[in-house]
Amino acid sequence: MKIEEYLNTLPKSIMTGEDVELQDSTLREIFEFASLGKNDVFYHLGCGKGNSISIALEEFSVKKAVGIDNNSEKVSSAKKMLEEKHLSDWILKCENVLNSDMDDATVILFWFSDFSIAEKMTSKFAMLKNGCKIITIWGPLPGNLPDKVEFPYIMNTVPFRKANSLKEQTMEVFGTDCIDFVTAWEFAERYSKAIAFKNSENDRFLTVLQTLVIWINAKNLGIACGDEIPVPIKNYFGILKTYFNIEMEHLLNLDSS
After folding, report:
1. Do 44 and 27 touch, CB atoms closer than 8 A?
2. Is the dihedral of CA 132, 87, 26, 28 positive or negative?
3. The listed CATH number (3.40.50.460, 3.40.50.11270, 3.40.605.10, 3.40.50.150) that belongs to domain 12-163
4. Residues of CATH 3.40.50.150 domain(s) within the chain?
5. Averaged over 140-158, what is the pLDDT?
């Protein structure tokens, strides 16, 4: 089956990230990356069970922390945890992020895989006050150049810098003139470690898939190193097809070579 068909067989909650809770260590890395501190008003869109809110308050001493999630059970669990810790200066909202007011935000953690939501939120973020930092994982906000990258963590700062093309945006994210197999694997592995599924075997599989996605996108954009398909890429194409019945070669635009 084609990779698109395989992805459609997975639970929607996995594909959207709804059931993926970032590890505390990952949250701390993100907060360090954002230089989160006592003068910040922190928002986590899709806050889940609220660990990010707790860490932002307890360890980074933010002025205020706001968590927004449309899952009422998770919001209730987060409220209970924060109350038991006797923390203050926090707000939790159960609502759609598209309808949320975040005018006082200085740092926003936004990790949504739905491109349509990302596009709508990018327009909303652009109206926030200058200097507001939007932190994403894996990709920058659609149509914009990142202001800081420690992959897979990416920062866009208001006012946004528009990208002239997807190629320009991709090169800014990877910080290189061309992307080879080693670069693709390194960046894919960083992403796998950051989101860290409970089953470590899935991490390896995710790394393989993301490596191929990174390299294929680079090839199609004309920024892959060399004209030939690297041997490791060919090998992984074969492994996926032989052992998992997953085909990805059709994603390659052979005219780009």
Report:
1. no
2. positive
3. 3.40.50.150
4. 12-163
5. 97
Q: Is the pLDDT at 199 greater than 90, yes or no? A: no
Q: Can you tell me whether residue 104 is helix, strand or coil?
A: coil
Q: What crossing angle do the helices spanning 231-244 and 181-195 adopt, rounded to 10°?
A: 50
At 12-42, the pLDDT tens digits run: 555 445 566 799 999 999 999 999 999 999 9
In angstroms, rounded to a whole number, what is the distance separating the alpha carbons of residues 243 and 177? Answer: 34
φ, ψ at 179 (rounded to 5°): -115, 120
Torsion of CA 97, 98, 100, 103, to 10 degrees: 110
Predicted confidence at residue 15, as pLDDT, reads 47
CA angle 24, 96, 152 (to 5 degrees): 35
DSSP percent split of the chain into helix, strand, coil, nearest 5: 45, 15, 35
pLDDT: is 170 or 115 the higher one? Answer: 170
CB 187 within 8 A of CB 154: no
Buried b (16+ CB within 10 A) or exposed e, 20-47: bbbeeebbbbbbebbebeeebbbbbbbb
The pLDDT of residue 256 is above 50:
no
pLDDT at residue 100, as a whole number: 95
